[in-house]
Specification:
Layout (H helix, E strand, L loop, with lengths): L3 E6 L8 H10 L7 E5 L2 H9 L4 E6 L5
Antiparallel strand pairs: 1-2, 1-3
Length: about 60
């Protein structure tokens, strides 16, 4: 099981509902191709699932990264 997530914004949020924009802003994703590392928690997974059509999610462990 991974202990962290790498989330990258791969598609623009322009024209998307305000709720999607708020989720991306909460994760720190403002520009395309920006990558953030977040803990693997149910909250972060839920946010990634909400905007799964806009982001790429990769699981990783800090020990091996």
């Amino acid at each position: 099981m991974a202990d962290a997530l790498k989330i990258t914004l791969v598609r623009s949020y322009h024209g998307r509902p305000p709720q999607h924009r708020k989720v991306l802003a909460a994760m720190g994703l403002i520009k395309i191709n920006k990558t953030v590392e977040l803990k693997d928690t149910p909250v972060n997974r839920g946010m990634a699932d909400k905007v799964s059509h806009l982001v790429r999610v990769e699981e990783f462990n800090h020990e091996t990264a």
